[in-house]
Amino acid sequence: MMSDTDQEGPAPRGLSVERAEESLRVLIVDDHAVARRGIAAYLDVLDDIVAIGEASDGREALLLLAELETYGNLPDIVLLDLVMPRLDGMSTMKEIRRKHPALKVVVLTSFDEVERLNTMLELGAVGYLLKDAGPLEVASAIRAAARDEVFIDSAMTKKLTQAMAVPSGVSALTERERTVLILVGQGRSNREIAQELNISERTARTHVSNMLAKLNVRSRTQAALIAVKAGMVPPLT
C-alpha cells in the first residue's frame, strides 16, 4: 500500500509535494496487483493525475480511506473493481457513499451487463469503464469525474442505448413468455403456439394472457408490434 502525502510527509511515488497537491488524486482498488500497478504506472506519466494509493479489496480500501480522512487527505476519485475478495465492489460502493458521500467513484470492471451498470450508477458511481479500456479512456473518466460529469465506456453506452430502445415490459417477461411473444409476432394462433411448444392449448392461452398483461397491451396485434420494435421478429408485411 502506498502512503499518502501531506505537508509533513513525502509526496507519493517520488512526486513533488507541489505536483501531488495540484493533481487529481486517485485511489486504485483492484484485487489484481498487475492491474493496479499498470494503472498507477500510466497515471504517473500524466501531469494532472496521480495515484496516491492502492488497495487489494474493499475492506482494505475502506481502512485506507479512513486513515487518509484522518489527515484530511482523501483522494478525489476512487477507481473501483467490482469482483474482489472479502468485500466486493458493490458493498464497498455502499460503504463509501455512507462514510464519504462527497467522494467520486469510477468503476473499472470486466463485467459489461447493463443491469450492473445501472445498479452502480444508482449507488452513486460517476463512471463505468471496462477493463479493456485504453489509458486515454481511464484518464478521461477521471477528469470527467472531477468535473462532476458521468463517463460511461463507449461499449457500455451502446448497450445502454439498445436496452433503453427495448419497449417497456419486454425485460420483465420470462424466457417462455418471450418465446410466446415471438410466436405471436409471427402470427401464430394459440393452437399453433401449443403445438410448437408441446404444451396444451389452455397453457398456451395462459402464457399469452400473462405476456399481454406484462406488456400492458390488450391485443395480440399490439404485442406483435412490440416484438417487431424490440427486434425479436422481422417487420410485419
- Number of E strands: 6
Report strand order across the widest sheet. 2-1-3-4-5-6
CATH homology superfamily of the largest domain: Response regulator
Characterize the overall form: elongated
Mean pLDDT: 85
Strand content: 5-15%
Number of separate domains: 2
| Overall SS class | alpha/beta
- The number of helical runs is 11
The level-1 CATH class of the largest domain = Alpha Beta
**Low-confidence parts lasting 5 or more residues at pLDDT below 50?**
1-19
Query: Would you give the CATH topology of the largest domain?
Result: Rossmann fold
Distance between the termini: 64 Å
Question: How would you describe this structure to a colleague?
Answer:
This protein has about 240 residues and is α/β, with parallel strands linked by helices. The chain folds into two domains: about 150 residues, Rossmann fold, CATH 3.40.50; about 60 residues, Orthogonal Bundle (Arc Repressor Mutant, subunit A), CATH 1.10.10. The protein contains eleven helices and six strands. Strand 3, helix 4 and strand 4 form a beta-alpha-beta unit. Helix 8 crosses helix 11. The protein is elongated, with a radius of gyration of 24 Å. The N terminus is likely disordered.
